[in-house]
Task: inverse folding
């Protein structure tokens, strides 16, 4: 099992490689991948594909000894080794551990996680807030060093902090006051990167606290502040994303908005009252095109469970839709791995 072309297959190959010791000898399968996740838009399509593949293998081969956390970590390793992307664990964790109507809070150090219900204190499902995903349909090509550059800059900030505060092992251990105390020993860029990370941790915890009591106004403010920090301190936004956030905040019923994903294009996510979704969508599509000449796409999203198998025979029988439409209806914003012939993988152990 080696990586190669087509490049998209490496996500699948890498996941299979992580399961080699669990698979029967000379195991093979035929599969087709169906998706309505916009590719390359910062919506974790690669992690979705990896976790869907892992779930597919577990169901197909009755693999019952892999926890959802272990599955997420295996998929992370697949991306590291076969896609050459040094990603974190967030995307794989939410794809594996998602829960209906809940957000997921992840401790990336301990790998512990907890859920936070979205919609608490609302009278009924019709008044729950939703997340509107807006695809800018732009992706700026960069040198490819932006992510490792920021890792390096943050590590430099940690080293400087440790010289005065040995207890700081990562930026999560530092405070803004600590950072201000060593500001003169940091470059302006490293200071800004560190300020973003320290602030983002606080905003994340504040958002969870707000959502846990149904305070969506505060949660929305944290989202918008996060975007401002990503734009000004971490410097991973772009003009098109900034325009989408600005336009979203013009509509009554919008709590907050920010970019998502790796930045420099891709998507924004906007927390909005369900009654304001139509007005927001119409406004974004009209005004974004007027200002950029680009058509954006809007997708209403509600938190859902992580990857699992779907009995499509039962699904199709109950649905008046065609088999293809029924599959999409059952799995919005997720990948579905099905046993049909499209691309053949033959797995051999070495």
Result:
């Amino acid at each position: 099992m080696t990586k190669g072309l087509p490049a998209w297959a490496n996500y699948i190959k890498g996941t299979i490689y992580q399961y080699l010791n669990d698979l029967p000898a000379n195991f093979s399968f035929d599969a087709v991948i169906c998706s309505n996740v916009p590719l390359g838009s910062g919506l974790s399509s690669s992690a979705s594909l990896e976790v869907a593949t892992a779930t597919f293998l577990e169901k197909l081969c009755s693999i019952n000894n892999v926890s959802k956390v272990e599955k997420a970590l295996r998929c992370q390793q697949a991306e590291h080794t076969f896609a050459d992307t040094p990603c974190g664990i967030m995307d794989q964790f939410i794809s594996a551990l998602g829960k209906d109507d809940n957000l997921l809070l992840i401790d990336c150090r301990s790998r512990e996680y907890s859920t936070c219900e979205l919609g608490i204190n609302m009278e009924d499902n019709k008044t729950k807030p939703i997340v509107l995903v807006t695809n800018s349909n732009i992706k700026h090509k960069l040198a490819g060093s932006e992510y490792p550059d920021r890792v390096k800059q943050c590590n430099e900030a940690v080293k400087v902090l440790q010289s005065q505060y040995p207890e700081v092992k990562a930026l999560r251990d530092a405070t803004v006051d600590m950072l201000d105390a060593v500001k003169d020993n940091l470059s302006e860029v490293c200071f800004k990167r560190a300020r973003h990370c320290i602030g983002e941790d606080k905003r994340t915890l504040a958002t969870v606290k707000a959502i846990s009591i149904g305070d969506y106004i505060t949660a929305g403010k944290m989202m918008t502040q996060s975007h401002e920090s990503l734009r000004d301190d971490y410097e991973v936004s772009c003009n098109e994303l900034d325009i989408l956030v600005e336009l979203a905040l013009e509509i009554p019923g919008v709590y907050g908005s920010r970019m998502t994903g790796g930045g420099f294009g891709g998507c924004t996510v906007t927390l909005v009252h369900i009654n304001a979704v139509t007005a927001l969508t119409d406004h974004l599509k009209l005004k974004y095109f007027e200002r950029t000449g680009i058509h954006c796409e809007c997708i209403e999203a509600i938190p859902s469970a992580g990857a699992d198998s779907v009995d499509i025979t039962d699904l199709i029988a109950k649905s008046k839709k065609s088999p293809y439409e029924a599959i999409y209806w059952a799995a919005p914003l997720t990948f579905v791995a099905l046993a049909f012939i499209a691309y053949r993988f033959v797995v051999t152990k070495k």
About this structure: Residues 161 and 178 are 7 Å apart (CA to CA). Confidence is low (pLDDT under 50) at residues 323-350.
